[in-house]
Amino acid sequence: MSHTIIYNSEEHVIEAKFQGSLTLNEAKEFIAEFALIVKEKDCTLLINDYREATVKLSTMEIYGLPNIMLDVFNSLGLNARRLKRAFVASKDLNDYTFYEAVTANSGQNVKVF
Fold it and tell me: How far is C-alpha 47 from the geometric centre of its chain's CA atoms?
């Protein structure tokens, strides 16, 4: 899988696009990169485009992602619960809606479209 992350200074939003298979290692790599950009740009808004991605995560891996996000952000002195994230997806919708639910249960803000 490949991903790109850019900071849109005009809209003050971080934009990410994913293509190919989304694995746990790829998700962890993205979270680490994303956290650094959040810190550098002081931006808490993110839009993720997953329309060209295929989820290759188990239910347990999806369940653990919100805690990975919290841990990475805490290690940088950031609060992941301040983020507002939108996910745009066209396949694997059950996986994304499950992720939306477990993320909300951890006090984070994610909405799947």
Answer: 8
Q: Which positions ≥6 away from 99 have C-beta within 8 Å? A: 62, 65, 66, 87, 110, 112
Given a contact cutoff of 8 angstroms between Cβ atoms, the answer to whether 3 and 20 are in contact is no
Q: In 3D, which of 111, 112, 38, 113 has the Cα closest to residue 69?
A: 38
Q: Amino acid identity of 34? A: F
Decide: residue 48, CB within 10 A, 0-12 exposed, 13-18 middle, 19+ buried: buried
Residue 80: partners with Cβ closer than 8 Å, 6 or more residues away? 69, 70, 72, 73, 74, 108
End-to-end CA distance of the chain: 21
The pLDDT tens digits for 52-88 are 999 999 999 999 999 999 999 999 999 999 999 999 9
Q: How confident is the model at residue 91 (pLDDT cuts 50, 70, 90)?
A: confident
Alpha-carbon gap, residue 95 to 37, rounded angstroms: 26
